[in-house]
Amino acid sequence: MKTRAAVATAPGTDLEIRELELDEPRADELQVKIVASGICHTDAIIRDQWYPVPLPVVLGHEGAGIVEKVGAEVVGYEVGDQVVIGPAFCGSCEQCLAGHPMYCVNFYDRNFGVQRPDGSKAFSDASGPIGSHFFGQSSFAEHTNVVAHGVVKVGNDVPLDLLGPLGCGIMTGSGAVLNVLQPKPGSSVAVFGTGAVGMAGMLAAKASGATTIIMVDIVPERLEFAKTLGATHTVNSKEVDPVAAIKEITGGGVNYALDTTGVPPVFAQMINSLATRGHGALVGAAKLGTEAPFDIGTLLLSGIKVSMVIEGDAVPKEFIPRLISLHQQGLFPFDKLVKKYSFEDINQAFADSADGSTLKPIVVF
Ligand code: NAD
Ligand code: ZN
């Protein structure tokens, strides 16, 4: 069938909306009519080739839509199901079987390989095959074929055009907090970076009962906005030393911290702001090969723990319904982070995300 899709063709250039041919879903796939897709910072860094993902490719990995075809071997889904699409995983390696599919040993190939395991690509046009299956889905397309086991049914009484980001950015920040850091009620949490991922971490910290929630960024407007959503303190790290500020606010160090920037000095700040036996997590993506220096001599005495966290270490089928439930109870107002764009304005949405004016863009088809 024919479908319109946004194709990434070269680093730093706009996506091109083209009409592509979409092949038939394979036995383990669903064909989904995408209703809306979030845009994540990771789409931008792949367009710009921070990871060596082959171009041209249809990006997009925060898709939500309606099942329109069910592959021959797929069970548990029907035409018409409303779904949110999470990352792909193999389902049979030791990490998948241990309940940590976001650390699937095939995660890179399945999500950044931009083809099926058999080497085929779902999209093509006169120029040849176009990369598909980005994060198992390539959701910047009106119709796409997705790996069924990453797909989460969400019922029919939910605002589907809002839910795509639960499949990546929102799941990443909130999962890093709820699944990995697990702050105790009454504890302190610092989040470096107030983009969609950091804000989702902040909302999750609040939902966990943390009572000191410190947001760190260099953009004053974002810090002001964070205060309206639950930050108890904000630190502009362009103006003050965030480590000293956090130590002062917390009386010696913060219990839990999240770095959503992936900027080496910020990662070091996160580590240095932790209390004794504190726990920090990195979710911000840096170019492959990026190193961060910190003082292992002193830190040995601190007993701190540092985790590297992919996709909130979530099991999407279990975690996304929990986030929806928290949202319905008013305890996880991630909708406040969202701005909607029409699909035709996808490059404007990327630009608004890059300059910080939009926290979480969603393109609606
Ligand atoms: P974003 O660009 O909207 O937010 C990043 C924030 O960091 C911005 O507000 C920016 O002002 C702030 N920042 C940048 N440099 C800073 C500095 N030196 N000091 C303090 N703050 C600084 O991005 P996002 O959508 O929130 O995503 C955050 C990161 O998470 C990205 O790197 C993205 O690729 C990554 N990500 C990782 C995963 C994962 O599985 N680990 C999943 C999704 C996204
Ligand atoms: Zn993402």
Provide an overview of this structure.
Residues 12-364 form the Enoyl reductase (ER) domain. GO terms for molecular function: aryl-alcohol dehydrogenase (NAD+) activity; zinc ion binding. Belongs to the zinc-containing alcohol dehydrogenase family. The chain has 365 residues and is of the alpha/beta class. It folds into 2 domains: 2-167 and 333-364, Alpha-Beta Complex (Quinone Oxidoreductase, Chain A, domain 1); 172-311, Rossmann fold (3-Layer(aba) Sandwich). The protein has 12 helices and 18 strands. The strands form 3 sheets. Strands 3, 5, 6, 9, 10, 17 and 18 form a 7-stranded mixed β-sheet that branches. It has a 6-stranded parallel β-sheet with strand order 13-12-11-14-15-16, with helices on both faces. It has a 5-stranded antiparallel β-sheet with strand order 4-1-2-7-8, with no helix packed on it. Helix 5 (169-181) packs across helix 6 (196-207). It is globular, with a radius of gyration of 20 Å. The mean pLDDT is 96. It binds nicotinamide-adenine-dinucleotide and zinc ion. The site of nicotinamide-adenine-dinucleotide has 32 residues, from helix 1, helix 5, helix 6 and strand 12.
How do the helices and strands line up, and which of them pair or pack?
Elements: E1 2-8, E2 16-22, E3 29-38, H1 41-47, E4 57-58, E5 63-70, E6 82-85, H2 94-97, H3 107-112, E7 123-125, E8 128-130, E9 143-147, E10 151-153, H4 160-163, H5 169-181, E11 188-192, H6 196-207, E12 212-217, H7 220-229, E13 233-236, H8 242-250, E14 254-259, H9 264-272, E15 274-282, H10 296-299, E16 305-308, H11 316-328, E17 338-342, H12 346-354, E18 360-364
Parallel strand pairs: 11-12, 11-14, 12-13, 14-15, 15-16, 17-18
Antiparallel strand pairs: 1-2, 1-4, 2-7, 3-5, 3-9, 3-18, 5-6, 6-10, 7-8
Bound molecules: nicotinamide-adenine-dinucleotide and zinc ion.
